[in-house]
Design a protein that fits this description.
The chain is of the alpha+beta class. It contains ten helices and five strands; from the N terminus they run αααααααβαββααββ. It is about 70% helix and about 10% strand. The chain has a five-stranded mixed β-sheet with strand order 1-2-3-5-4, with helices on one face. The chain is elongated, with a radius of gyration of 35 Å.
């Protein structure tokens, strides 16, 4: 009785597996491997069916041994050939995955280019539109200051000129941050060094920047993304870490451009941060580096600062 039940269960499982395999035939574009595996599973169910017949019909005495032998041979052949051909499916899946990765890179590159295009447009409108207007107002205020006024009026004019100077300076700085002309004209090392010097002037944190690439130029997209990533890392440190010092080493060894970044801040639990919305910044950094065929390794723990290593093949 136990053998009969076991045979029934075996037949059902093999039929279910055969049905699933048949369903995969269409999804794999009628790949020969799934067709052969489906046939093999069906023959396995037939083999079990012949084994169960004597339990149902006592006078059923087929040439069981001969049938089993030929069915077994058939199963072995179709399953073996199916497994050989199944390599094509894995090859197809591998190609699909590679195409998906390339598509993601193309989409991300398009997003970055669109973002930079808008940054440049906005920077140009600030510099060429609002800048001259404020300069004209400043000239008018300078002319107005030459006229005799009482002390109160002079003070108002002087304060207004001071505010205008601050506004003009701020517009230039915002415009430069949106589309840094130093990066476009002099390259990654000069632009990064200039940005670090600006941060050092605030006296809030000390950045030690070193580089061996001087004025060497690279692909504009690589320079732009690496510059934005370094600025993002510095912004994260100054905003969240409470660090006193940052060390940045920008180096080229053969065809590999390397950025080593570290701070002496309070650090954080990377796994916990990456599982929250706060970790989107780190995820964006890794995605940007990946889009230029680079790799980014990040290390940090609570109380032990932050370290990042970026490598890009140039």
């Amino acid at each position: 009785m136990a053998t009969f039940i076991a045979l029934i269960i075996a037949i059902l499982l093999q039929l279910i597996a055969a049905i699933i395999a048949v369903g995969l035939i269409k999804k794999t574009k009628f790949n020969i491997s799934w067709i052969l595996i489906s046939i093999g599973l069906i023959f396995m169910a037939i083999r079990r069916f012949f084994e169960i017949m004597p339990f149902l019909f006592e006078d059923f005495v087929p040439e069981t041994e001969l049938i089993n032998r030929w069915i077994g041979i058939t199963i072995s052949v179709v399953i073996s050939v199916g497994i050989i051909f199944i390599r094509k499916i894995f090859k197809f899946l591998g190609q699909a995955q590679e195409e998906n990765i390339e598509y993601e890179k193309i989409v991300l590159a398009a997003i970055i280019q669109t973002e930079e295009k808008e940054r440049k447009r906005f920077a140009k409108e600030l510099h060429d539109g609002l800048g001259p207007l404020l300069s004209t107002v400043k000239m008018s205020m300078s002319a107005l200051s030459q006229i005799e006024h009482d002390e109160k009026s002079k003070k108002i004019i002087t304060n207004t000129e001071h505010v205008l100077n601050e506004a003009i300076s701020s517009i230039k700085e915002i415009s430069n941050n949106l589309s840094p002309h130093i990066l476009n004209n002099f390259g990654l090392a000069s632009a990064t060094n200039n940005f670090c010097n600006k941060i050092n002037q605030t006296k809030k944190i000390n950045i030690d920047f070193k580089s061996n690439i001087s004025k060497e130029r690279f692909n504009s997209n690589i320079e732009l993304i690496l510059y934005r990533v370094v600025c993002e890392l510095i912004n994260n440190t100054t905003t969240h870490s409470g660090a006193q010092n940052i060390k940045i080493n920008l180096s080229r060894y053969s065809k590999i451009l390397t950025i080593q970044y570290s701070d002496d801040g309070k650090g954080f639990d990377i796994e916990r941060i990456e599982n929250t919305r706060t970790g989107m910044g780190l995820s964006n950094i890794k995605s940007r580096i990946k889009s230029i065929n680079g790799v980014c390794f990040i290390e940090s723990s609570e109380g032990n600062g932050f370290n990042a290593l970026i490598k890009v093949n140039v």
